[in-house]
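Format notes (please read before filing issues)

Several people have asked whether sequences and C-alpha cells are stored in separate files. They are not. Every record keeps both together, in the order shown below: the sequence lines, then the C-alpha cell lines. Line labels are part of the format and must not be stripped during preprocessing.
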Amino acid sequence: MRKFIYAILFVFIFSIFVLPFSYSASEEYMWSSLSDVTVTTSTPVVSTNNLELESGSAILIEQNSGKVLYEHNSHEQLRPASVTKVMTILLIMEALDSGKIALTDKIPCTENATSMGGSQIWLDVREELTVDEMLKAICVASANDACVAMAEYLEGSTSSFVEKMNSKAKELGMNDTCFKNCHGLDEDGHVTSSYDISLMSRELLINHPSITKYTTIWMDSLRRW
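Then the structure lines:
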C-alpha cells in the first residue's frame, strides 16, 4: 500500500489552528532557507491577527529553544483529530529508545483494533506486523487500527495507554489537554490546544529524532506478499 507522508512538520502547520504575530520580546525573527537571523527592533509588543487567518487558534515555535514566534488563541481547547497521534508516536518512541520494545517485535492485531474505522490499513486478526511496520502505518497512513494495536501491546489495554498519554501530557505542561483515545476520532472531552501540540511535537523531535526516518517517507509499502 502506497501513501503520501504525514510529516511531523505538518503538525506544526496543522497546529495553525490559528495565529497572529505576538512578540514577547524586542526581537523579530526573519527566516531564510539557510538559517534564522535575529533582528533587533524597538517595535512594541503587538498582539493582532495581522495574518487574517480564518482558523480559531494557531502557534509557531522555534524548535530548539521553544520560543513562541507567532500565536493566536493558542490555549483554546479544540478537537485535535489525528494530531492526537503525535502523543501516541511519542510514547512508542520512548518505549523503543528505552529498550522496552524493538523495531522487529511482532505486534498482534485484536478485534478491537480492527473495529476502529476512519483512516486505517485494514489490519486482520490473523496477521502480525512489526513495530517498524506499525510506525510506517501510523506516520504515513495515519492508521487508527495500528495505533490501537500498539497501545494494547505496550500497556495491555487502550484505557491504560490513554492514562499514560495524559500522564505524559501533564509532565510536559500540556494543561489544555485531555486525551480520551490514542487515535483522534472525535469523542466528548478529547481536546488539546495548538500550544500543547507544539510542546509534544517539540518533545518528539528533540528527544527522538529518529522518528524523522518515518515522517520523511515519500512512498512505501506494507505486506510484501
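For reference, the curators noted about this record: The longest helix spans residues 158-171. The first strand starts at residue 21 and ends at 22.
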